[in-house]
């Protein structure tokens, strides 16, 4: 396994791989890899000749008051995981090389997909995501890229972007990986103290309460939403950012369940913002 | 020569060309080809194994009050020119295939390069240009792309975009091709009636007056600008959109001539908006 820090070097290596007719899978990450990332890497390994993992804490997708500086980083630990999982290349560029002086071009997803869910409290976040992914896809030129379904809005936006810009990368969504008690794995879980960690299961628990309600035939979205909101509010350490139930195909807010309904939430546990979702 | 109308087919052909190790040159155009385009094609032919010309009147780079519908189109005439010039492929997609229902992603260049010159009276124009070029570059994946220096702001913005997004295409600027009397060749020149056609030489004439002033040692930008503006205003059919003198490297407005000064103008002759420029 090789760690590549230079854009031009990564381009040359990727070109060589493609010129040999080998398939190239890519897992874009911000590092601090956990079981969720491992499952993406495994999926990439199974379906591609060569696998590149990018590790880049992307400054343009953090807001000014967000945790860019404190976001956890551990390249040594990440390298070990990648090595164990049979990754061929880690691409780990410096922020200054990705965004040099005078940098000014951004890729902007449509408002309909960003003026909702995480896009409301994280303005500019998906602009940063789309921009860095357009760059990474250009540099690495993968046949396949793998994304977790935990960041479900990101997955939908990236799919749309790749289709719109004809980027020619297959975007693969992989199921959420959870702790034993149901908490979705996330690099940000490391921010939680013991008490908060226990409280954090309220996200999954509340989604399942809503699901049970739906399984029992409830189709009224506002009623389902209320069950979920009340459940989260029963946890004193939890503070809701949003709980939304939308049509996953159109990103429209709905009153009755649709064929492909997305329940998505962002909840603060103490100061840590966690997300979870369910497609029903 | 083949005319390709389908995005997927164009992608497959371009992939084959690249997989054979052949170099691929691309000339992006909106069709109605003239000597200016021919010079770009010639340059592409000289420096690449295969040349693809895209012909696509891109709706996203026209404002609501601009000439998208009336923009001149003549595929038969364009095909003949391309055939004569030894072009290998024309890529001529339908607007509906380039921008299908639900299309929502845009590539946006930095404000510093767009809040000036043509960007002021054509808001969204360069957003459309950057978006369609990102798409075309993804579909065709050229080694080299060729642009006329007549659209000098476009050339600078595209260079910046390709660098920022790591698109890996060499952007080549080619000199302005002119009519015998100095008028820069443009598909929009066909809009001019006989009287307007004569009046249109005022753009080049006025730039040369400014140049003469600079050749004689004048360094004060406002004085040079006044000479040019007065010259244009001496033509009754001319109405100035802008006359600007800026630093071409930084896109800053300047008071004294810089190492790389750009004189750029847009002038209405009757209802037809023409542009011209000089780098000094």
TrEMBL record, chains A, B:
Keywords from the named record: ATP-binding, Cytoplasm, Ligase, Nucleotide-binding, Pantothenate biosynthesis
Cellular localisation: Cytoplasm
Positions of the catalytic residues: 37 (proton donor)
Pathway annotation from the record: Cofactor biosynthesis; (R)-pantothenate biosynthesis; (R)-pantothenate from (R)-pantoate and beta-alanine: step 1/1
CDD domains on file: PanC
Record keyword Ligase present: yes
Enzyme nomenclature, EC number: 6.3.2.1
Residues that, per the record, bind ATP: 30-37, 148-151, 177, 185-188
Gene3D superfamilies: HUPs (3.40.50.620), Pantoate-beta-alanine ligase, C-terminal domain (3.30.1300.10)
InterPro entries named in the record: Cyt_trans-like, Pantoate_ligase, Pantoate_ligase_C, Rossmann-like_a/b/a_fold
GO MF entry, a single one: pantoate-beta-alanine ligase activity
Main location: cytoplasm
Residues at which (R)-pantoate binds: 61, 154
Pfam families, per the entry: Pantoate_ligase
Reaction catalyzed: (R)-pantoate + beta-alanine + ATP = (R)-pantothenate + AMP + diphosphate + H(+)
Miscellaneous comment in the UniProt entry for this protein: The reaction proceeds by a bi uni uni bi ping pong mechanism.
UniProt function note: Catalyzes the condensation of pantoate with beta-alanine in an ATP-dependent reaction via a pantoyl-adenylate intermediate.
UniProt similarity note: Belongs to the pantothenate synthetase family.
PANTHER family: CYTIDYLATE KINASE/PANTOATE-BETA-ALANINE LIGASE (PTHR21299), PANTOATE--BETA-ALANINE LIGASE (PTHR21299:SF1)
Assembly, per entry: Homodimer.
Name this protein carries in UniProt: Pantothenate synthetase
Organism: Peptostreptococcus canis
Gene that specifies this protein: panC
């Amino acid at each position: 396994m090789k760690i590549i820090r230079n854009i031009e070097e990564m381009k040359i290596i990727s070109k060589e791989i493609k010129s040999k007719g080998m398939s190239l899978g890519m897992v874009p990450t911000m590092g601090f890899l956990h079981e969720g990332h491992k499952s993406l890497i495994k999926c990439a390994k199974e379906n591609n000749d060569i696998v590149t993992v990018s590790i880049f804490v992307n400054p343009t997708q953090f807001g000014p008051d967000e945790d860019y500086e404190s976001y956890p980083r551990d390249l040594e630990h990440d390298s070990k995981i990648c090595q164990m999982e049979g990754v061929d290349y880690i691409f780990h560029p410096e922020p200054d090389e990705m965004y040099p002086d005078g940098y000014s071009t951004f890729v902007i997803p449509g408002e309909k997909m960003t003026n909702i869910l995480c896009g409301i409290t994280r303005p500019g976040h998906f602009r940063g995501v789309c921009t860095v992914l357009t760059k990474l896809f250009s540099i690495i030129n993968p046949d396949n890229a793998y994304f977790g379904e935990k960041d479900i809005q990101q997955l939908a936006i990236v799919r749309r972007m790749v289709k719109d810009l004809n980027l020619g990368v297959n975007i693969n969504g992989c199921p959420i990986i959870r702790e034993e008690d149901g908490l979705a794995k996330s690099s940000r879980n490391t921010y939680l103290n013991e008490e908060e960690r226990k409280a954090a299961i309220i996200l999954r628990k509340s989604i399942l309460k809503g699901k049970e309600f739906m399984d029992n035939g409830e189709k009224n979205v506002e009623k389902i939403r209320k069950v979920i909101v009340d459940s989260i509010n029963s946890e004193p350490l939890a503070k809701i950012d949003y709980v939304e139930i939308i049509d996953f195909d159109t990103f429209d807010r709905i009153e009755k369940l649709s064929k492909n309904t997305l329940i998505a939430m962002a909840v603060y546990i103490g100061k840590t913002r966690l997300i979870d979702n369910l497609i029903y």
